[in-house]
Write a structure and sequence with these properties.
There is one protein chain. The chain contains 19 helices and 11 strands. The protein has 492 residues and is of the alpha/beta class. It has 3 domains: 222 residues, MutS, DNA mismatch repair protein, Chain A, domain 3; 204 residues, 3-Layer(aba) Sandwich (Rossmann fold); 27 residues, no CATH class. The chain starts with a strand and ends with a helix.
Amino acid sequence: MSTIMLIPSKREDFERLTGSAYIKEQIAPKTPMGHIYFKHLQPLSAEKIDQHLEDTEVLLSILKSPVFSKYIEEIEHDLECVIDISHTLKRLSDGNVLDEIELFELKNFLIVSENLRRKIEALFSNASQSIPQILSIEQRFHIPDLSKPLDILDPEGLRIPTFYIYDAYDERLKEIRQKKRTILKEELNKFADSSDNPQMLELTQREHELEAEVLEKISMSLKTYSKALSEAIDKVQYLDVILAKARLANDLNLSKPNLSGYDNCDKIKITGMFNPQLRNELEKKGKNYQPVDVTIEEGVTLIVGANMSGKSVVLRTVALIEYMALLGFFVPAKNSVLPVVSAIALVTEDTQKPLSGLSSFASEILMIDEAYKIAKEKRKALILIDEPARTTNPYEGSAIVNAIVKAFDSTNCWTLIVTHFDDIKCERRYRVKGLKPVQNTNLLLKDIQDLMDYSLIPDNGTSVPKEALRVMEILNISEDLVYEAKNNLRKK
């Protein structure tokens, strides 16, 4: 497990702003352990990221092949039957005597684990010819053979998910129970109450004593398999986690990111990037989502464009993609080259915690300063700043944004800044392509979004797109208002 610094520092705020919370809602683990894993997601080490991505890729190939659908269906059914025995195993490892309920749960886990082990072995054996890379990952999914501890809990070898203290555990127990049955039969024939029979009471007392001995003996025998049981829990959880990640990748059409170390990635390059939550919302309305390509080099990359031109979505989706990659997920893009960073800063408006005017600016500039301190520490970070100084007047705002660009451009972090101020000096500058050519100038407000081309194109800063005036014309705003606005622009 690795650590990563996030801005905002509260993980739930960061995940909500990036859309990670939506992604987590789409994940469907089958086991209690899988649910716990995804509830407490943590960034992985570089080695673990590679492992999760490689294993997800293999299981995704299996999921996409109809040949193996029956195997997957049966494996997922077994995973749904898994009981979390972590607490029981802890008690067992500590030398406690387990009760019948705990042994029942343990037996259930062992039966399901044995079924999973056989089915996984069969799946991997059959899939190895068409998916040869499965051989290199097989060991990570290999559940240990638990037939011996299962034999302890199933002395009759019936392999059914029930447990009681069988007669087979102790011959004396068998004899006592036989005597009790004989007495009970005799009492029933006499229509008498056997509960007050002194011999029955004595036999019952002895039966309880022997059952306690048996429980202790079983617990001590099972304790020797604690390590194998712990390994089985880990393997079952890992299978559930990777299968859930593969399912997510398949359902959302995610791709495997190409991650590089700190010193091996000079630029972040993402093609066909999309935001799963926004895409889903648009599809519900019968609209299409336009994927976007973005390149972010060390220093500052600037995106300029009018308000409502999709700049903020780009920013948040880049944060989402980097975050998902560090968690070992496939990402919402056609292709991506990403660094392994130690910090992600997303400075953007939080509509669920609204501030206005100088209060909003104060909160924003504090986060920017925090991100700048991280950058000055020579830490590799991805820094994403959305419309800095948006609530200030244009003169101060432009001066502040230019200062921010200059400061972050001197660091070795990957910084993406989006702004609607046009007079910002930056070497690497893009703009949103903007409104498509349109003949109809009598459209409704809801149609404007459909006219936008969200592609990012290089921008030298010499020309200023007049998107607001075009929107006025498209919406058939009063001619005198449009004329006066154009006249004012010409005077400038």
